[in-house]
Design goal:
mainly alpha, two-stranded antiparallel sheet, 3 helices, 69% helix, flat, binds zinc ion
Length: 125
């Protein structure tokens, strides 16, 4: 399989395989830059994603505080466990959301198929 002609952020050749007749992978295709930007900002703005970023920031603050002795180790351990629980809940929420989006797209496809079938029937009937 041919490899993408793009260069990664590390300055190395991108090793993602591309289909016949294609030069770039999704991440490096100049023609899909706008699409990438739209998708990235959509994903970055989703609520679970923002929550995860916030929790990550708090966990790293917590780690810093423990290391400099600003927070008691026991308290930090409990806080860490609680934040972990929140992370799991957010991850589940993310999964449910993804599933719902997939379901909605499937329903769209199904109704498009139905419409096609109806048109076919009308055409030959
Ligand atoms: Zn690439």
């Amino acid at each position: 399989m041919a490899e993408c002609a793009g260069i990664t952020r590390d300055g190395e050749r991108c090793r993602v395989g591309v289909g016949p007749g294609e030069r770039w992978c999704y991440n490096h295709d100049p023609a899909r830059q706008d699409e990438r930007k739209r998708n990235a900002s959509k994903a970055g703005k989703s609520k679970p994603n923002r929550e995860l970023q916030g929790i990550k920031a708090r966990l790293s603050d917590l780690a810093d505080d423990v290391l400099v002795g600003r927070v008691d180790r026991g308290n930090a351990a409990v806080a860490g466990q609680l934040l972990n629980t929140v992370i799991r809940a957010v991850a589940v929420e993310l999964k449910v959301r993804e599933q719902m989006e997939l379901e909605a797209r499937l329903e769209e496809l199904e109704s498009a198929l139905e419409r096609q079938k109806d048109n076919g029937r009308r055409g030959y009937g």
